[in-house]
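Tetratricopeptide repeat protein: structure tokens wanted.
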Amino acid sequence: MLFAAAILLLLAGAVFADYWSALPAEAKATFAGRSTCIDCHQDQAAKFIGSDHDKAMDLATDQTVLGDFDDATLEHDGMTSRMFRSGKRFMVRTDGPSGELEDFEVKYVFGVYPLQQYMVEFDRTPDMPENEISRLQVLRISWDAIDKRWFYLRPPDVDDKLLPDDPLHWTGIAQRWQTMCADCHSTNLKRNFDPIANQYHTTFSEIDVSCESCHGPGSLHIELANKKSLFWDRNHGYGLAKLKGEDPQPQLQTCAPCHSRRGLLDDQFKPGDLFTDHYNLELLRPETYHADGQIKDEVYVYGSFIQSRMYHKGIRCTDCHDPHSLKLKQTGNETCTSCHQHAAGKYDVPSHHHHAVGTPGAMCVNCHMPHTTYMGVDKRRDHSIRVPRPDLSVELGTPNACSHCHVADQLQSIDDKSKESFASKEYSLWLAAAEQGNETIADAIRRTDQWCDEACEKWYGDERKTPPHFAEPIVAFRRGEPNSIEGMLQLVMQPDEMAPALARASALAELAGAGSPESLSVARKILENQNESPIVRAAAVNAFVLASPEAASRELRKLLEDSSRLVRNEAARILVASGGYQTLTGAQQLRVDRVLSEVKESLMETSDRAGAHMAWAMLCEGQGRFDEAITAYETAIRVEPSTTGARSNLATLLENLASQNPSPNSAAMLARVRELRLAELPLLRRDAELVPDNAALQYRLGLSLYLAGEMDEALRQIEKAVSLAPEVAEFRQALELLKQKLEQE
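Answer:
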């Protein structure tokens, strides 16, 4: 017995020792590559092969190129581009940076379905290491993988030929791989942009979206698996992010960075991290979302999904999608009915959807997840998974899934020219035409909305209008309706189950952006709630740009230690922008400076964009660091010469310095001011013409014209800004002041 007991004690000791043996808590995982995963995860690897993640990017080879390079041609914009082979190389002859036809080698392919794009490398130097990539530009000549044809991928709402100096030209910054696409199509990507040399040294550990993009760097997991221990590590678990636990958030926030429209705070995100510690989610702006949160511009998935009831009920991506093949787990309506297993006849029957079985109208996704086509051929479904609301369309002008299908019924009632133009256009293009002032199409949409709402009233009664929707106060506010501010304040304070956090953050941001002082009271209440979503708290911080410097200092300095990077970065930024920074003690300013170093780090993650340097320049300016601000503005102009904003900001700063502190350099400063404003004006005209419904752009053009002495045109532009955004107090005040000045002259 004693011997047996001794053996058991030894075994227990060995087991405990096995458990207690652990990697150091500070041990950091590194990227090991997918080849190290396959032996133990063969089923997952087999599903991954050929997936969209696997085909996200690759070298251009006979095996990866889908397009026809057998001396194929494509006519566009009065020119003929040619796709051909030169030995083993894939070549495209098209207009280059000079505007003339040139031959370019395709180095990489991008994507696989429903389109494939092709990339050309520029600025590569002979001494660059093989694993580094210089500037990559994405050709607009693209391959339609569905219809097997070449097509020219135009920017939305741009029909004119793009000139080489246009940022939208394929050689421009809007078509640059590093600025628009790279982080989400390769694993462990590092841009490595040198703003002084204006040169990229971009690297990745794997060219496509591989295992470690979603699971995190795998070296610790491999080390632990090879130890053959009875236990995973007490410090590091199994060495990877836990994406399959009861809490859906780690998985959702791991998918979110590449399936959302967002700003970058840093490039240190690891699967399982909080999204808002590394990214700033796009709000429901009029340019990107419809007022009710439906997709408009390319916003991808996450911002839509977090509005949905599915999200609030704990549904996660892999409930519908296989995480490795990315395919839907079920086909047809079974994707929905596999969870919605209600009593027979509740949903998947004509008594619910009122369409014949087997027709498009009987498909759950066509009513609850209508698609919008992006990039010419890519149909993407709206993941807010909502009940169609044609009643809101009648009242507010928002889209609805019923009209999505039935607006084409109006073709017989419109004039022949419009009928020919819109016969093959999808719903989103009808909506865009109506928004741009096409009254024929707008009337057709209104008639369709009314007909659809009458049908829904007959089928579903008043229940179709419940619960109240956040779009109602948002649209009322944008229209400048009486008492609309009160409606927005009520929306901001609603609980998450009544109004999604994204909608509440957006409402608060619009109130602050319009100069509404009422937003400060609700902002204070929100900041008192530590359990509130970081995106709502960040919007509350932003509202204090309207506060007095003393009030901003009092409310925001305590947020400099906030657990959310998004919140503390915004607090530091607004302390400077509001003037609150200047009211702080020296010790308090040092705390702000520490957070601002984090802000600078965030901004310089996108140092290849002028906006990063402009934002830093404005922060330096607000702190009185004028030399650093001037350098940052000049860097913005050098990095992105065709952008607007940097020249006008720098001109104002130099003008103020010259007038407040006269010096021998003042004359040179004022000469530089004239040069900057002269260069800025045509760029602002270009942008205002490209986006005629953007009130802020029209206003900035108006101010620039005023400074250039073109008073009558300045008046017209500022009047246009006010008509587009009557709720913005700054626009109205500027218009009134300009009118007074013109009357006095």
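Residues 242-330+365-385 form one domain. The mean pLDDT is 92.

Cheers.
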